[in-house]
Amino acid sequence: MLSKVWHYCHIRNLFFHFFFLFSVEHDLSFRLVTYSEAINFLYGLRWFGMKPGLANTLKLAALAGNPHHHLRFIHVAGTNGKGSTCAMLESIYRAAGLRVGLFTSPHLVAFGERIQVNRRLIGESEVVRLVGQMLELLDQGWGKLEDGKHPSSRDGSVPEPDPRGPGGPRSATHPTFFEVVTVMALRHFLEQKCDLVIWETGLGGRLDATNIVTPLASVITNIQHDHQQWLGNTLASIAAEKAGIIKTGVPVITAEDNPEALAVIEQTARHQNSPLTRVMQSETNRPPLDTLELPLLGRHQRLNAAVTVATVRTLPARRRAQCRRRSHPGRCPERTFSRPETRARFGCLAGQGLAGYLPNPGAARRQDTFSSGQQRTLGGTRGFGGGLPSGQPGRQNRGVRHFGGRAGPGGR
Fold first, then answer.
1. Does the N-terminal or the C-terminal CB of the chain have fewer CB atoms within 10 Å?
2. For the segment 8-36, what is each residue's pLDDT rounded down to a tens digit?
3. Do residues 53 and 177 lie in contact, with contact meaning Cβ atoms separated by under 8 Å?
């Protein structure tokens, strides 16, 4: 009997040994983790704070095979309106028949909101698999963490970001939460064969992890005072950071009208030889917006919609043609503005920045909750509140709700 047990254990051990060798040989993720463990690992990376700069993201992306080199992007920055503009762009291009990736931050309820393809949130199994791959790449590029464990708490809870500034005491070089999630998203979009990715910055632009891409168009919604400790105390300094997403020869679209901030954007565009399109408030009363009723509250949303329309119309025809799906050769994003299904989708968003109107917010999973971070600036709050339609007194004072933990610099 004992010999049979020994024989069984020996065979089992041989099986796991060969499975491990196969996993290593074929670059498979051998660290099998649950979704909860994967999320806790990612949130644990907030211990590394925020590190402005592209070195970590470029290195991690290179280890991942540089997936961004095989994707097309529209890069969106700005103080307010990024989420709404990204969602409307996604709707337009999806209606045109493209397979569209959407990367936004922070999430409102579930982590999967950050990474979507055709408005389908990344699945839990995909998160687990990609986190396993990131673990391997992090070990390759930066070595194993202390005791070989990720920086989440031993009891499985998510630690708060280090309050002592970027990086904290744990490491001066290890990639942060946002850097790792950015590369995860790139890998997912490439695997999903996305025709176009709507790519929202996390904070600023010039030194933001998302700025490793060269997009088809760069969008700067507006410039207001936000994150002064990172971006500077003047509109000019903040504009300089956000204008850092402007690449040589790539079209730029902005709705900014403040002379101080606009001058910086114009100067950067000239330096980069990038054509600049300014979107005026008057364009909200021109076709197709003159007859289009948006479901989003606030007059500022019409300006976001105008930025969306200008972006689609600004993209060079040859690049639009490159983005068209073979299964829909006759469709063009510009033409979709007149189609009923597009007009219905245009602005039907998934609650980006409108947390106060989220149905049943208590249903959100505790481990996945994060504060919205939208409408976080004084200017954004004024625009949101001042633009609410009359005749709905119950909504004027609802404000914006926040869920979960802090959305500090380490946890965008």
1. N
2. 444 444 433 343 334 334 444 445 479 99
3. no
Query: E strands, 241-302, where?
Result: 252-254, 276-278
Q: How far apart are the first and last CA of the chain?
A: 58
Residue 104 domain boundaries: 37-374
Q: What is the pLDDT of residues 127-139, one digit of tens each?
A: 999 999 999 999 9
Q: Are β-strands 196-200 and 217-220 bridged in parallel, bridged antiparallel, or unpaired? A: unpaired
How many domains does one find in the chain? 1
Residue 220 CB neighbours (<10 A):
30
What's the predicted TM-score (pTM) here? Answer: 0.74
The answer to whether 238 and 261 have CB atoms below 8 angstroms apart is yes
Q: Is residue 124 part of a domain?
A: yes
Q: How far apart are CA 108 and CA 130, in angstroms?
A: 21
3-state secondary structure labels for all residues of 118-149: CCEECCHHHHHHHHHHHHHHHHHHHCCCHHHC
Q: Is 140 inside a domain boundary?
A: yes
Burial of 146 (C-beta count, 10 Å sphere; 0-12/13-18/19+): exposed
